[in-house]
Structure of SRPBCC domain-containing protein:
Amino acid sequence: MTIPQRAVPAAEILLIERRFDARPSVVFPLWAAPDRLAQWWGSPDFPIHSIQMDFHPGGKWRAVARSALGDDIAMFGVYREIVDDKRIVFTFAAGDTCETLVTVTLDDVNGTTRLGLHQTPFANQSEIEAHRQSWNEWLDRLESYLLRHHWNDH
């Protein structure tokens, strides 16, 4: 017997949309390899110092960020769906927080990438805002990484 999925209320969903001056074929690989992901995941206050990835559906990932005081925060999950240059779906948990599902979509819009990020469910607005702040910092770093490497020219 299949248990019906409950509809997730809008109050439990984080949505972010960003535009990058590079094609999805350039942006996608930056999510797919640990050495590249380490260049932009994390923040100046909590840089990522370790990433392991098995980048295929069913594969696990784990990243560890370290605070200036030396405290580690582990993030981990499982890849659910990967469509090259288009879509990545994975579970996300950090520390002892509840698991969420993250869906990243990459759409080519006139040679640029429209990235959509959808993450759910959250227990309250403060969790959503904390994740929104983190993702926006990370996506700012992704944009800087793209600009530094001039990958928008390819």
